[in-house]
Amino acid sequence: MLRRVVLGVVEALKSVNQQMPWFKPTIAGYDLDGNKYLEAPPVALKQIDHVAASDKTRRSIEYADGRTGVQAFDGEVIPVQWQSWLRHTRKDPPTIEELQRDEAQKQLTIQRAMEIERKWQERKLQLEREKLAQLGQGSEQPVPASREPTGQGDTFEPGAWAPKSKARGSG
Q1: Distance (Å, rounded) from C-alpha 21 to C-alpha 14?
Q2: pLDDT tens across 5-26, in order?
Q3: Measured between alpha carbons, how far is 149 from 156 in angstroms, rounded to an integer?
Q4: Which of 87, 116, 124, 126 has the greatest number of beta carbons closer than 10 A?
């Protein structure tokens, strides 16, 4: 009987809590795309016999384009720092400066990767030209198999392998 009364009071407090101003979420911050991140107190109070829900704060996102609901979650749109904060693996929300710094680093990495790819394509073209020039000189003689591998990437040629014979029973 006492347990029912206590649980009834707890449930009543939960519904009252949800209507009180201190229950409303506060703005934790924004990302570079204008998405808003919110934090609110935990929903459930700890009950006497067991814990009804987590004591972690509730964290959510309001997308700048108006999407709502859990189904609208898109990990490609949300920065990693904010994903960590939403999942409680990060205590403090990221700052705009941190997001800008990481975005600049990301763009620099992409730019460098494109430069490396461009140089590799130029090198591949140069190797193909050299191969064609060598074939065009009339050297139809077979090239002996090299014991060492040559080339890189698309031009890689494995080396020859000649196992050494080992006489059986000589051990």
Answers
A1: 13
A2: 666 665 665 555 555 555 678 8
A3: 7
A4: 124
